[in-house]
Amino acid sequence: MKFKFLIIAIIMLSNFQLAPGQNSNLKTAVFGGGCFWCIEAQFQILDGVESVASGYAGGQTANPTYKEVCNGTTGHAEVVLVTYDPSKLSYIALLQAFFTAHDPTTLNRQGNDIGTQYRSTIMYQDNLEKLQAQSIISELDKANVYDSKIVTEVVALDKFYPAEAYHQNYFNSNGSQPYCQYVIAPKLEKFKKVFKAKLK
Q1: Are 48 and 94 in contact (CB under 8 A)?
Q2: pTM, full prediction
Q3: Alpha carbon of 145 to those of 3, 36, 54, 111, 185: distances in Å?
Q4: 3-class DSSP state for residue 182?
Q5: Residue positions annotated with a catalytic role
C-alpha cells in the first residue's frame, strides 16, 4: 500500500503547484471517503487548508441527524467541507490527498464502516472540478494504482449540512478513544509520510 501511495504522489506531483497569478481567495471542496472523522483529521494537517467541517450531503432528507444518516435512509453520505487557500493548495492537490486518504475501490464501505453513507464521493461545485476529478480517476485506473477499479462517484453538490457539534474536530478532541487510536491514527501516520512536504 505504501508503494501505491507513492505512485499516486508521482502521477500528480506536476499538478501540485499553482499557475502564476491564480486567485488566492478561499475556496471550498466537498469529499466523502468513509467515516468523516478519518478524512477530517487528514485534511486538517495540510498546509493551505483553513478549516474542515464534517457533515452530510448527497441525499434527499433536509437537515439530517447523525442517527438518520447512519440508518441509511436519507441518501446522504458522510462528507467533509474543506475550506482552502488556492494560492497554497490546488484542487488537484486536494484530489491527490483524497485518493490517498481512503480506499476508493470499495463500494459503500471503508473497513468495518458499511453502507451508502460511507461511499466514496467527490461532490463538485463547477465543471472544472468535475473534469479534474474525472481525469484523475481515469489516470489512476490506467496506471493500475489499485488492485480494483475506482468506484468513487463524481456528482454535483446540492447542499451541505453540517454535522452535530460533537463530530467536529473529532480526532483532535477525542484522540484517546479506541476508534481514534486503532482506526484514525494509523491512517493519519501513513498520510503524513506521503505529504510530509505539504504539512502545516
Answers
A1: no
A2: 0.88
A3: 9, 24, 28, 19, 24
A4: helix
A5: 35
